[in-house]
Amino acid sequence: MRGWRVRHVVVIGGGIVGLAVAREVARRGDAVTVLEKESRWAAHQTGRNSNVVHAGLYYAPGSLKARMSIAGNASMVAFAREHGVPVDVCGKLVVATSAGELPRLDALARRAEANGVPAERISAEQAREHEPEVAAVGALHVRSTAVVDYRAVCAALIRLLGEHGADLRLDSPALAIRRSPAGTGIEVATPRGVVRADALINCAGLHSDRVARLAGLVPAATIVPFRGEYFELRPDRRHLVRGLIYPVPDPALPFLGVHLTRMLDGSVHAGPNAVLALRREGYRWRDVSARDLAEVARFPGSWRLARRFARTGAEEVLRSFSRKRFAAGLARLVPAVREEDLVRADSGVRAQAMLRDGSLVDDFLIQSAENQVHVLNAPSPAATSALEIARHVVSLV
């Protein structure tokens, strides 16, 4: 689209990434329409995550995730403070609970240094100064990790978009996407009529690959939904956790493992467990979609991933149905946590892009075509990085 100025952009998706992208379009002086299929903003991944502002600790140096989460940590905290959104830069501990985990902890410390993340390798005694109840033989103290209210961030973005005169449409799923008859723009059919624009940006999260197909693209990856299941500590047991306590990640496994997060309201979230969701927005086992399951079953990557992580997947499913197993996982970090301390909390669903060989797309994945940009993989730390993703995506238009 070089050589001419975009006048009107349509953004599909009203989560934090879509709203941040729309705000960036508006800041640059162009008209923007946001289409959200639900009746409220931030209804899915944004409104159901752990509200952590990540430091950029885990990601490969030089990757989009590393660069955007490190910059996003600073820009998200600054945005929250500027717009009166609750935020707490509380830091977190990544703890090794056995001597066998210390080499992985040291490797993580080296990665933090390579990424420019402010993190300090500390002893077990120093770890207990931060978290008296933690079980640790060593730890990494990550100072820049924060907790924020992402729903409130989205509310602030909506206010700013309103000030810019943006066209914000709820209950407006994209039903069809086609080039305009003149061939110079995009038309998106919705239940409320056709939206005509010069360019399209797809931030549809759990449905991003489907929107790409509607627009005539062959997406580079397929979305497979994983449900993250959470508990909370009972109010009288919240004192066991002062801040954020994470395990040392196993690089051979696809997810971080259960951890403990003190929220802004003082509650302590525990999780997430990770299991295949039986529909794209399947927050409970009884949420089942025949269409979504058929897509997963037809996709060869699903079976290859299942074979690779059969034992881990079985353990996650067992933990999904057993509060005792869930508590045991948490007790590795904080031994005082007991089964009776846990109260079921809301679940989330992660939109994870997967390749046909069964590998999970590790980095943010953005695919472009003429007059179009599609954000095809933006799981955690996408909320942390939303303002940075927005700058990058809009620069592609």
Explain what this protein looks like in three dimensions.
This protein is of the alpha+beta class and 397 residues long. It folds into three domains: 8-48 and 151-221 and 361-396, 3-Layer(bba) Sandwich (FAD/NAD(P)-binding domain); 92-143, no CATH class; 224-358, D-Amino Acid Oxidase, Chain A, domain 2 (2-Layer Sandwich). The chain has helices at residues 16-27, 64-82, 102-115, 124-130, 150-163, 208-214, 290-298, 300-308, 310-321, 323-331, 386-396; strands at 8-12, 31-35, 52-53, 87-88, 92-96, 119-123, 138-142, 146-148, 167-169, 176-179, 186-190, 193-197, 199-202, 222-233, 244-247, 259-262, 268-276, 342-344, 348-354, 365-369, 372-377. Helix 9 (310-321) crosses helix 10. The longest helix has 19 residues, at 64-82. The radius of gyration is 21 Å and the shape is globular.
**What percentage of the residues does DSSP assign to strands (E)?**
25-35%
Under the CATH scheme, which architecture of the largest domain would be assigned? 3-Layer(bba) Sandwich
Unreliable stretches: none
Instruction: Kindly provide the name of the CATH class of the largest domain.
Output: Alpha Beta
Q: How many helical stretches? A: 11
- What composes the largest sheet? 9 strands, mixed
Structural class: alpha+beta
Radius of gyration: 21 Å
- Can you identify the CATH superfamily of the largest domain? FAD/NAD(P)-binding domain
Secondary structure: helix percent: 25-40%
Number of domains: 3
Per DSSP E runs of 2 or more residues, the count of β-strands stands at 21
CATH topology of the largest domain: FAD/NAD(P)-binding domain
State the shape: globular
Q: Give the termini separation.
A: 7 Å
Mean pLDDT: 94
